[in-house]
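Next up, sample data.

:::
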Amino acid sequence: MHSAHTSFLPMLVEELRASLPNISEVIDQLAVSQSNEQRRVLLRQMGALWYRQDGEPEVLAELGLALSELHGVEPGVALSELLLAYGAAREEQRTREWESHLVRRMAELKGLHRIISAANSTLDLDTSMQLVVETVAEVIGVEVCSVYLYDKNTDDLTLRATHGLNNAVIGQVRIRVGEGITGWAAREGRPLAIRDVRREPRFRVEPGLGEEEYRSMLAVPIVLFSVERFHLGAAKLQGVITIQTYGPRDFTAEEINFVETVAGELAFFIVNAQLYQQTDEQLHQKVRELTTLQQVSKSIAEQLNLEEVLKLIVAKAVELSRAERADIFRVGNDGRLELAATYGGTPRGAIPGFIAQAVREARPLAVHNAFNDSRFPELAEVAARENFYSLFCMPLRVQQNRTIGAICLYTGEARHFDYEHMRLLSTFADEAAIAIENARLYDESLRALAVKSAMLQEMHHRVRNNLQTISALLTMQQRRLAPNDRGALALRDSVARIQAIAGVHNLLCREDIGVTTVDAVARQIAESARLSLSSPEQPIRFEIRGDQARVGSRDATVLAIVLNELIVNAITHGLSAGGGCVIIETTENDGMITVEVRDDGPKRAATAKPSSSGSGLGLHIIRTLVQDDLQGEFSLIIGDEWTVAQVRFPQHEGDG
């Protein structure tokens, strides 16, 4: 076995020198290292580097066995250091990716909140559009964002707001629908993402704008309603949002969706502002409709209580359409149609077949007289039972043209549902579909988060068990040695350090995911020291004081080792003769955490001066971990009455 591993090592090292020089450099340092602790540090570095270089864990394990035989390191120690560091690096990378995703989502939500708040506070269209372009440019991180408004009389687009281009030509640059990328997006009615406009024959430079130096472009039409909903000839296009960058860029689906969402909100701003410029009652009615729809959109953005949102939608639909009743139906998980919300009446009996047919065919249904409609023989009985005369039903559809339900209006007298009613109900249908889909996605996200949380806690549980197993093996080895033997003392210290790390993972199994407190870590280490190092003849009293400073799993693990070393040093060198008191105090201020460990050994006659028989390894470990891993500072002051050790480091709560 020895010859197999040692013969494997030279060939692998030569390959690593050519492909992974960083790994081979660590192997060279391992060959000249004289300290076991230094070898463990190097093995951890090698495990982390191996993951960052996309190395396979199986090859790493073979390399670890070969190195352990060559340099006299315990195979279990070598494998545990390499593989634990490999796994830690992998989890750290995943955490960073997830944190980056959350940061992007938070920036988008803050941007939308800023836009919606501005829309609710002003009807100045120019102010709203300028805020939109500045917010979109900031959230996505682009150099240019512009808004063009559509004029249906001239069938062209006019620049009305820009961030990054020449503001002097606002109101002067006009683009025909179908011309250039901006006009192309307006005609197609869908987002167009161009990585490099210099390779796109449709692109043309608009004189005076100053856009010659920009390469990539995304154009998103501003549409008030879904293009697929009707084909009645009414104008739905309100304008186009464009963003541009200096270099070629592939816009992500999340970025495009964000701009589409902003465009949807901006569509309401535009129509709202334009309608408020009119004075007649019909236009004021449109204003009320759009304001209500904004309120509904705001409610959807602010809460995920599906029942309350749907109740608001049906109530506003009845109010604005002057109907007597409104119902929202949705397709349940079992595929059956069910009543989700109602306002203005109480439906009786099963879901009527004509509503199920409207959902199945995904087509609007208008009934002028429910008592003589030959298409649905059963309709007269339902109308008599539920006291309505006319009805209009609009399917609820989401992306990919999937029908998930319907919204229906009922009137007690004959009503012809014209285009305006159809348009209004279509918008409510869109809002209801968004609310239902958001609730479904939110439930899926909660389930996924619960699974990930359970997996992370299980990981901490397994790591803790593995560390306990390693600790037990080292304890068994320690018992084979004389109590005062240097090897036995070294094993004892190693067991204490492993128990400290295992204690942190034990906390993380119960606490918030990846987060605990300095107070909890200190209590865990103090309790372990009290059970293993103190005795009734030399009692030691521990006091835990101060702030409840929160730390992530990585900092908690490092801090556990540091506190373990400080407490062991205090008991071994300061309080070994007659016991005493150890105080651990935490303070948190301006993003910095300070932990002080004090013992009253100096004022006790038997231990007036600290013992000098130690190797100094503990202090070396402390300084290394505090400076390199916590990016902090360590100081040790021995006074006449107290020995004070202070650790000060920046708070990184999200490091886990």
